[in-house]
Write a structure and sequence with these properties.
By secondary structure, this protein is of the alpha/beta class. It has a single domain, classed as NAD(P)-binding Rossmann-like Domain (Rossmann fold, 3-Layer(aba) Sandwich), CATH 3.40.50. 43% of the residues lie in helices and 15% in strands. The chain has 8 helices and 7 strands. The chain has helices spanning 13-24, 37-51, 67-80, 113-136, 162-182, 200-203, 208-218, 227-237, and strands spanning 4-8, 28-33, 57-61, 87-92, 145-150, 188-194, 249-252. It has a 7-stranded parallel β-sheet with strand order 3-2-1-4-5-6-7, sandwiched between helices. Helix 1 packs parallel to helix 2 (37-51) and helix 3 (67-80) runs parallel beside helix 4 (113-136). It is globular.
Length: 260
């Protein structure tokens, strides 16, 4: 009998690293990802690496923001989990949104209402919907952990990052509220603010090379944050002794955020 981790965004970046770390700690992995044919091989590689650690790796190639697909995953999870098994960790690392200015002088190429709403829905509100379904289905017991990946964009600005920045701020707010509402159930909820990390999602941000160079110079540890840095921290944080740690935005950045 082994507990499970449900990883949203399991096929790259933080989701990949956390999946492999938690598998190495004996957790079975339910991995949700969205990949087309060109990148599907990477998701399949990760699944094989998980299974090589002698645990189960079940991957779902779906749109995590689709309510019907979410219900299908939850229903399948209920069938797969054995007696006494729980989803011990829900890890949210969905990075799909619009990178456009909020306002342009002539109104051209600025973010539209559907784009802004989609960005907040995928990168923030989906955390609430997945948590609702996991809790309502009885899949997460006491000592459950919910983690969501935020960034310094929740409080700082970068050109064309406005829609994602708004989503990160909302995500952090959702984590605080969920921490309050789930406290009596023994479930802890925290946002994790990684330092600037060279991931496929970051590379989509206009000016990402400049962002990476600034972070290298700024970080007192003398290097960028890696997905493995975050994964190792999550591996430690799932210990039952950390139940009292909830409602926070936890910096995993080598001290990057404290430097002006």
């Amino acid at each position: 009998m082994a507990d499970w981790a449900l990883i949203l965004g399991a096929s790259s970046g933080f989701g990949e690293a956390v999946s492999l770390e938690l598998a190495s700690r004996g957790l079975n992995i339910l991995g949700v990802h969205l990949d087309r044919k060109a990148t599907l091989a990477n998701a399949e590689r990760i699944q094989k690496e998980i299974e090589a650690k002698k645990v189960q790796g079940v991957f779902y190639n779906i749109n995590a923001a689709d309510a019907e697909k979410r219900a299908e995953v939850i229903a399948d999870a209920k069938k797969r989990l054995g007696p006494g098994e729980n989803i011990r960790v829900l890890f949210h690392s969905l990075a799909f949104g619009t990178l456009k200015p909020l306002v342009t002088p002539d109104g051209g190429d600025q973010v539209s209402q559907p784009q802004l709403e989609m960005t907040l829905d995928v990168m923030a509100n989906s955390l609430v919907y997945w948590t609702q379904d996991v809790v309502r289905s009885g899949l997460m017991g006491r000592h459950g952990r919910v983690y969501a990946m935020t960034s310094s964009g929740g409080t700082r600005v970068w050109p064309q990052y406005g829609p994602v920045s708004a989503a990160k701020a909302a995500l952090e707010s959702h984590c605080r509220q969920l921490a309050l509402e789930l406290s009596k159930s023994g479930v802890s909820v925290n946002a994790i603010r990684a330092g600037v990390t060279d991931t496929p999602a970051l590379r989509k941000i206009p000016g990402s090379d400049e962002m990476l160079e600034i972070a290298r110079k700024r970080n007192p540890s003398g290097r960028l944050t890696t997905p493995q840095d975050v994964a190792k921290a999550v591996g430690v944080l799932i210990d039952p002794a950390t139940q009292w740690l909830t409602g926070n935005t936890l910096g995993v950045d080598g001290g990057e955020d404290i430097v002006g």
